[in-house]
C-alpha cells in the first residue's frame, strides 16, 4: 500500500463537513474527505460507498442469473444483432413470431447497463474518498468497469457467432472472476487501511490458492457440461462434441477434490486457532459448496430441469464470491500491536506461532 492512513482515524458523526484529506470512520468504513462534494460528511460518504460496492457485487452476480434465464428460455438470439436488438431498432418489438424472447435478451443487456453505472461509480468513489487505501486498492477498483466492458464486447461476438459454445463459455467465465474481485473489494472496503499482513501460515495461504484454482476448474468443467447439454440458448445453436455424462463425472470429481481441500483447510484453521473472520469465511464457503453440490447432483438425476439449472448458476456466483471471501479473510489491513503483529495463533503449550513459522 502506498498511502496508509493514520493508525487510528477518529470516528465521525458525518453531520459536519470534513477538512480535505482527513480520514474518518463511520459505519465501519473509513473515507477521506475530498476537494469536491465537500458538503458530505463521513457518514454520508460511508453510506454511498457501501451502496456502490455492494450494488456492484450484486449486479455482477445478477448478470450470471439473468444470463442463465436467457439461455434456459431459449432467448439467446432473441435480439439478432448487437448493440441494437434488431437492425435499426435498439429496443425489442413484440411480434407473434419472436414472442417474449427479445425482451428477455434485452433485459439481460439492460442489466449490463446498470452494472456499468455501478462499476463506474465504484471507481469514482474509490478515487474520491478511498485513495488512502493505497494504489493496489485503486487498481483493483478499476477492474469491474474494465471487465464489464470486455464482457459487453464478448457478448456481442457471442451473438454474431450465433451462440457458439466456444464463445459462450468464455463469456460466462469472465463473470465469476469479476464476482470474486468485487467480493474482495467489499472485504477491503470494511478492512483497515494499513499494510497488509497475513493471519495464517504460508502453507494455508498456498492451500487456499490451490482451492481457488481448483474452484475455477470446477466452473470451467461446468461450462463444458452446459455446452454439451440440452440448454443451448437457441434451438439451432451448435453444441460441443463432448459426452455430457463423461464431462459431468469429471466436473463432479473436481468438486470432490475441492471439498477435500476445504475440509483440510477447516481443520487446520481450527487447530491453529486462527482469527475468527478466517474461520467464518471458511464455514461460509462450506455452506455454499454443499448447497451447490446438492443442486448439481439433483439437477443431474432429474433430467436438468430449468429451475434447478438456474439455481445452479446462482450457486456458481455465490461459489465464486465465497472463495474470494475466504481468501481475503486470511489477511488483515488493520494495524497490529508491535509485539503481536506476527502472532497468528498459539500452540498447544501456549507458544506463539507466527506466519513465518508455518504449521507445526
Q: TL;DR of this structure?
A:
With 360 residues, the protein is mainly alpha-helical. The protein has helices at 42-72, 101-129, 135-160, 165-190, 202-228, 244-271, 276-301, 306-328, and strands at 23-26, 29-32, 197-198, 331-332, 343-346, 352-354.
Structure report:
Residues 1-19 have a biased composition (Low complexity). With 360 residues, the protein is mainly alpha-helical. The chain folds into two domains: 21-194, no CATH class; 196-360, Four Helix Bundle (Hemerythrin (Met), subunit A). Helix content is 60%, strand content 5%. The protein has eight helices and six strands. It has helices at residues 42-72, 101-129, 135-160, 165-190, 202-228, 244-271, 276-301, 306-328; strands at 23-26, 29-32, 197-198, 331-332, 343-346, 352-354. The chain has a two-stranded antiparallel ribbon. The protein has a two-stranded antiparallel sheet with strand order 3-4. A hairpin with a 5-residue loop joins strand 5 and strand 6 (352-354). Helix 1 runs antiparallel to helix 4, helix 3 runs antiparallel to helix 4 and helix 4 packs antiparallel against helix 5 (202-228). Mean pLDDT is 84; it is low at 1-8, 10-15, 339-344, 346-352 and 355-360.
Amino acid at each position: 500500500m502506498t498511502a496508509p492512513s493514520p493508525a487510528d482515524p477518529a470516528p465521525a458523526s458525518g453531520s459536519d463537513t470534513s477538512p480535505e484529506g482527513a480520514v474518518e470512520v463511520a459505519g465501519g468504513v473509513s473515507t477521506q474527505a475530498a476537494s469536491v462534494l465537500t458538503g458530505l460528511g463521513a457518514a454520508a460518504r460511508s453510506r454511498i460507498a457501501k451502496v456502490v460496492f455492494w450494488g456492484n457485487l450484486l449486479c455482477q452476480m445478477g448478470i450470471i442469473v439473468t444470463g442463465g434465464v436467457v439461455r434456459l428460455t431459449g432467448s439467446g438470439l432473441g435480439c439478432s444483432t448487437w448493440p441494437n436488438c434488431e437492425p435499426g431498432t435498439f429496443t425489442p418489438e413484440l411480434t407473434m413470431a419472436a414472442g417474449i424472447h427479445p425482451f428477455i435478451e434485452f433485459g439481460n443487456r439492460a442489466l449490463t447497463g446498470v452494472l456499468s453505472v455501478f462499476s463506474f461509480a465504484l471507481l469514482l468513489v474509490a478515487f474520491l474518498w478511498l485513495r488512502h487505501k493505497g494504489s493496489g486498492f485503486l487498481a483493483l477498483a478499476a477492474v469491474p468497469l474494465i471487465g464489464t466492458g470486455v464482457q459487453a464486447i464478448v457478448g456481442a461476438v457471442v451473438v454474431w457467432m450465433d451462440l457458439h459454445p466456444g464463445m459462450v463459455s468464455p463469456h460466462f467465465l469472465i463473470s465469476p472472476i469479476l464476482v470474486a474481485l468485487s467480493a474482495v473489494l467489499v472485504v477491503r472496503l470494511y478492512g483497515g487501511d494499513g499494510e497488509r499482513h497475513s493471519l495464517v501460515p504460508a502453507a494455508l495461504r498456498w492451500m487456499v490458492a490451490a482451492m481457488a484454482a481448483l474452484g475455477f476448474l470446477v466452473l470451467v468443467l461446468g461450462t463444458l457440461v452446459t455446452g454439451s447439454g440440452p440448454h443451448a440458448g437457441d434451438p439451432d445453436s451448435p453444441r460441443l462434441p463432448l459426452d455430457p455424462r463423461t464431462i459431468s463425472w469429471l466436473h463432479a470429481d473436481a468438486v470432490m477434490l475441492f471439498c477435500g481441500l476445504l475440509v483440510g483447510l477447516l481443520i487446520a484453521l481450527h487447530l491453529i486457532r486462527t482469527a475468527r473472520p478466517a474461520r467464518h469465511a471458511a464455514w461460509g464457503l462450506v455452506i455454499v459448496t454443499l448447497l451447490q453440490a446438492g443442486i448439481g447432483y439433483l439437477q443431474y438425476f432429474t433430467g436438468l430441469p430449468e429451475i434447478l439449472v438456474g439455481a445452479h448458476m446462482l450457486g456458481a456466483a455465490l461459489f465464486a464470491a465465497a472463495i474470494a471471501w475466504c481468501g481475503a479473510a486470511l489477511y488483515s489491513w488493520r494495524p497490529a500491536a508491535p509485539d503481536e503483529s506476527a502472532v497468528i495463533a498459539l500452540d498447544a503449550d501456549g507458544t506463539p506461532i507466527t506466519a513465518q513459522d508455518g504449521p507445526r
